[in-house]
Amino acid sequence: MSSTVTASQAATPVPDRRLTLISLVLALGVFTTLLDTTIVNIALDHLQSVFHASVARTQWVATGYLLAFVSVIPVSGWLSERFGARNAWMCAVGAFLGGSLLCGLAGSLPALIAFRVLQGIGGGMVMPITLSIVTRAAGPDRIRKATAAVALPGLLGPVLGSVLGGAIVQSLSWHWLFLVNVPVCLAALVLGRILLPATPGERGHRLDAPGFLLLTPGVVAVAYGISGISGEDGFAAVTAWLPLLVGAVLLAAFTVHSLRARRPALIDVRMFARRGFGLGSVITFAGGFSTYALSFLLPLYYQQVRGDSVLHTGLLLITQGFGTIFFVVAVRNVAARIDSRFVIAAGVALTMIGTVPFALADARGGTAVLLAAQFAQGLGFAATTFPVMTLALAGLNHAETPRGSAAFSVVQRVGAPFGVAVVAVILQNLLDGATTTTDQLAAFQGTFWWIFGLSTVPLVLAFFVPPESQKATDPAPAETTGRAAQ
User: Fold this and answer.
1) Is the same domain home to 160 and 213?
2) How many domains are contained in the chain?
3) Are 35 and 153 in contact (CB under 8 A)?
4) pLDDT for 305-356, tens place per residue?
5) Domain limits for position 434
6) Has this prediction a pTM greater than 0.85?
């Protein structure tokens, strides 16, 4: 398809076979950017030893990536509109590739941190642009199928990353934590050039500069504040509450700006008032307290309470991935014929059921039960994630898709670490004064019960999801649609 394709042609959904190929190419980009986060996080202790640095300094390998990652999400929608979605996606993957290569060649901790920022800039743009491309290519009738392919890496990445990161740390040089991304990114760029639809950039889309100066620093401040919550002082730390406060003020100011803007804002906050998009976003944010919190807590449980190695822990966690794959292969088509309210509720319930054995487990034995529980968690993660993503994105029209995808990605990237940080504070408070393995076990058991309780929030919200028939006839408000198309 030539670069002179018209906007109307770009909006036409592609044939099924082409959609499958597009989804697989996009999944490559998503997989490598999300896998990289887990691979590096599990190796921070090793990097601390390599560079003879403090924990606080080494942590910036992860924090620098996170802040760069979230900083570019708000502007990714505009970049997709201005330069074309395929061009923007390839630039994002290219930046991530360059950052990965430089990280692998870094000779000092400051250089590694700087190159991780470049990685984060590329990685942060990949997911929202991916959602924009796949939503437009699929059309509303096939969005459930298309989003499954690009969401799957997000669920498998944390599990496979633990295994791959542990294997690299134990068997290879730390440089391969980053160089492993290079062949995947190269394949994604080559296939992307061939298979992704070429949509033209639209010069009339001007950057919402005031919105950018409010939203991007606001999101970064919130992300930075979240990263400080898990410290010893929790929310009381100045490095936590002050950035969170500043971020909240900036986000509130952006909300006012978005509502009053005459030109399309960086993100149209009116989209969150729609039942499907708003509920999907809230459920996704609340998932940070359960889905993502479990991904954080389980490795710590295996390593600190049961004494497993990094690699063995990663192998134990694979059963979560099996649960996710089982949903995609054997359950997804059946679930597509069931009202998504019940699918989402069942997914949350499975996650809660999979949490109970860990809340009751001791420090030894019962491994088979725990593995079965993780399978249920993986199945529940998938049963929740895919319908919620479909719920949020299906109601976006062609013009709204880039900025709507960016808005949903902001919720994902802020909600996940916020939920993890809150659970980390709960765990730290329960661990205070724990001097024996029994005390540690009790602290982890208590934290798992907290996750179980917090999971009731998305469970209740699932029943407020509009029925399938109502979602199909829930058009965008005329004013919002008109503004987005300007």
Assistant:
1) no
2) 3
3) yes
4) 888 877 788 788 888 888 888 888 888 888 888 888 899 999 999 999 999 9
5) 271-486
6) no
